Amino acid sequence: MSTTFYPEITKATHSRFLIYRVLGYLLLMLAGIKMIAVLVAVFYHESIFWVFLSSAVFTAILGYALVYKGRFASDMKSRQLFLLTTLSWLSLCLFAAIPFWLIVPDCSFTDAWFETVSAVTTTGSTVFVGLDHMPKGVLFWRAVLNWIGGIGIIVMAIAVLPALKIGGMRLFKTENSDTSDKILPRSSSLSTAIALVYLVLSVCTMLSYYVAGMTGFDAITHGMSTVATGGFANYDASFGQYKSQPHIYWIGSFFMLAAALPFVLFVSMVKGHRQALWRDPQVRAFLSIVLIATLLLTVYQISQNDRNWFDALTHSLFNVVSIITTCGYASEDYTLWGNLAIMLFFYLTFAGACSGSTSGGLKIFRIQLAALLLVKQMKLLIHPKAVWVQKYGHKTVDDQLLGTVLAFCFVYFATIAFLAMALSFYDLDLVTAVTGAATAVANVGPGLGSIIGPAGNFSSLPDGAKWWLSLGMLMGRLEILTLLILFTPSYWRY
Amino acid sequence: MSTTFYPEITKATHSRFLIYRVLGYLLLMLAGIKMIAVLVAVFYHESIFWVFLSSAVFTAILGYALVYKGRFASDMKSRQLFLLTTLSWLSLCLFAAIPFWLIVPDCSFTDAWFETVSAVTTTGSTVFVGLDHMPKGVLFWRAVLNWIGGIGIIVMAIAVLPALKIGGMRLFKTENSDTSDKILPRSSSLSTAIALVYLVLSVCTMLSYYVAGMTGFDAITHGMSTVATGGFANYDASFGQYKSQPHIYWIGSFFMLAAALPFVLFVSMVKGHRQALWRDPQVRAFLSIVLIATLLLTVYQISQNDRNWFDALTHSLFNVVSIITTCGYASEDYTLWGNLAIMLFFYLTFAGACSGSTSGGLKIFRIQLAALLLVKQMKLLIHPKAVWVQKYGHKTVDDQLLGTVLAFCFVYFATIAFLAMALSFYDLDLVTAVTGAATAVANVGPGLGSIIGPAGNFSSLPDGAKWWLSLGMLMGRLEILTLLILFTPSYWRY
Ligand SMILES: [K+]
Ligand SMILES: [K+]
Q: Ligand 2 centroid to B123 CA: how many Å?
């Protein structure tokens, strides 16, 4: 069963060693990507190539050692996946942070850690200023971390989270999923197909950006951070850089939207189910929200700010899509549009897009299921003895699943509230603390207010706040419970 | 069975007519209270007494007509209680608003409606300025509306909401509750006992205030708005008026806390269960939160603002208690204490105190039950096949009940979010819109920010915003679903 993955397995050992091997492979992959960064730096005649090179060698040696240590390990229990998933993201961040720390001037380890976590979790909040003059190697490194974070998220959402039964992801168990306690070989063919979709989508984005007038380098890096809904741009002005090329905003909006749809449905469409996307209740709701918010802001800008309709529509669409897909680019400082716009972007920060995409946040389907519970409860108030069967699309939603989803909603908002409280200990104002916490946990990128708003930057925050925000980004990316569960005593009692 | 309540019933008619009779009694009671306001105005030689008098006569006539119309009505179905409850609060507000509208100079009907809804729902947000020079009759009217709102809330929480099964109130069904479909005569003796507790508590508060140095008038009116956790004060500075008499803050804190505890437990204590209060899980959590928040703010003020410890403790306690009990007095502008304080008060605004008290908000037990669901879900993630029995105090919490509670939490925050969005259409800033919505739905009183903060006032808001906020206050007081359900088509299909 696991032969395709681990042909070398000859005997089973303690499953803990499998964690070593997986982490080892991860570091080897990271070392490989660092080698690509070496090539980029060399291509642009940047002397920093040696940092990437030596760090790649260091990472590779450690990775190989871990793989060697775990070479005899067999399959593992689903429960250990919590630990493995958390450790994977943590070690990826740790070893990816080294180049930032060594290369960028005045970059403390805190800043390097923040930037890396922000990159790998595809949050896209930045503490770097002067991006316009940053070495190409560093900009590439930021973008490629966004990109591998993006694929990591989808694989996690497809292969790991449903097995962990976190936050209602069970709803998206595919036919390939088996119900045994053995996890790793599950849905390997689906993961491959999805990785392929991710790759194709990335290349399409890059080509479109290039044709639209970006430089080759910008097209490649922005393509990566678009499809990952990561949101790292190569300029301090983010996508404000392209204000004279509005067609770039339309291309960006299109591909951000695509990256925020369930990737499984793309695979279904390729397999012949042409209607898969349009029939999905989550996709419909998501696109409706985007449409309504965009039109509302367009009308608002035309009436309030006396803007021409094309400009209003272009910037409304781009920024709404950017925030709800949790990409986090900004074409301009939308907080200047007015209070209604600020409120709308505040809400969009929490929402997130579709499950099984690269986006973060609460996800539309959870909001829909919570609404489903409400409808059911209201029916029960009127007809107390009736029995109601809730449907989501064609699937029956049992109470157990609803409980999981609502527990997730609760822990999601509780985490944001807790994080905001922690941030206010560093004397950050209400709006900065709350939106900072929300944008971190939802992996969006920009917050609101004068400090971390779309025109701002996270660099001026106190070090402690940066650590809390990094924790928030990681928690958000790990759907919170994966990380939280490691701190319960009963997890370790086995 | 219903003889004690309606000895005159001789034959059953359509149950709709019972709604008339109940509303009629309500208006007769309101007319009676208006007569007390007449006495107050006469006592202070205020010419406005004729307004109260004529409005009392008008209300009494209408009330009598309604009672007469419904004189043959028999008992009603529990479903009709939604309509009856909503109509009761609405008609109370409507007929109580008349004196404000006629007496207060420059008072539009919008302002009169806002102030009345704020009074009757015990929110305590005010649009009146120059309270210090307001006729005593008007100040009395504000306070007494707070007070009858307060008793209305408890009776509703004891006798109506458990029957309606809204938001987990079923947990507090008393032994007196029967399970039949007949509602009104239920728990009448308990309601009487609780009304008595309310009365005794009010008198104690008034006497304490008077002994502490308030004028007789202030002692009576503030006593009423304290025990109702209404929060209307007789001065523009709210309780800042008493900054030279810190013992008044301690007395106020004590009685606000008492009024925010479950009144049923007072009855139990009187009946001999001395430990009833301390053994209640909700009371323990509530007092713990108060303690922690107070100590945190005390230390914060001592260290940050260089305040002496007694002052810091007094004002921390008073304002924390005032906000979490949803009373809403302010002893000073606590938003000047610093960002941490603002954040804390922001959260306290949502929380609310104990169920079955006069307080509003989400209520502590709902937060506890949501946490219970989270703990259960985390256990399920680790041991997927185990069966867990959740306990709250000595009561078993089934999934059905948890669903009700979580649906309530969802609709609570959704209502606040929706209301905040509506407010931002009137160009209110993020903080004003969000805290305005929260303080209305939670029936607290003050919000945050420069406009509606503890040092501010709701008078400068646009008329439309005042109507939305009034709706929010009513929805909060009706535990949202009671009102919402009237807008579903299936409610009316019977
Ligand atoms: K992002
Ligand atoms: K209040």
A: 4
